[in-house]
Amino acid sequence: MKPARTLMATEELVPYEGKVSSQDIYIYQRKVGSLFYIIIITRPDVARVVVKLSEFLQNPLSYHHEVVNHAIIYLYETKTYAIEYFVDIDS
Q1: Fewer CB atoms inside 10 A, N or C side of the chain?
Q2: Does residue 13 fall inside a structural domain?
Q3: Distance between CA atoms of 44 and 50, rounded to whole angstroms?
Q4: Residues 49 and 39: beta-carbon distance below 8 Å
Q5: What is the count of structural domains for the chain?
Q6: Average of per-residue pLDDT across 68-86
Q7: CB 75 within 8 A of CB 46
Q8: What distance in Å separates the CA atoms of residue 75 and residue 81, rounded to the nearest whole number?
Q9: Quick one: pLDDT at residue 4?
Q10: Euclidean distance between CA atoms 43 and 48, whole angstroms
């Protein structure tokens, strides 16, 4: 798989007008659910993307699957990133 240098592709996500299989819907919902768990527990920096992906839980296009997979790869590749908080006690 290609490295994921950014969290989300720049193309706009749009709803799919057709109908996908219930298995594709289930797989997509599980992946997005896993991302929600990650943002709640450890990575609030990706919340915006996950919320956007959750808009397509009922009828995801194959492109939506690609984007959610990209987000998972990005999280794996940036697993050592951290949010640091600093308090200047002298001020």
Answers
A1: C
A2: no
A3: 10
A4: no
A5: 1
A6: 86
A7: yes
A8: 9
A9: 63
A10: 11
**41-56-60 Cα angle (round to 5):** 115
Q: Tell me which of 74 and 7 has the higher pLDDT.
A: 74
What's the confidence (pLDDT) of residue 2? 59
Is 16 within a domain?
no
DSSP string, 45-75: GGHHHHHHHHTTSSS--HHHHHHHHHHHHHH
Classify burial at 75, counting beta carbons within 10 Å of its beta carbon; exposed 0-12, middle 13-18, buried 19 or more.
buried
Does 35 map to a domain?
Answer: yes
Q: What is the rounded CA–CA span in Å between residue 27 and residue 38?
A: 17
Residue 64 lies in a domain: yes
Supply the pLDDT for residue 23.
93
The type of residue at 31 is: K
**Would you state the structure tokens that stand for residue 25, as one six-digit string?**
């819907």
Report the percentage of the chain scoring pLDDT > 70.
Answer: 87
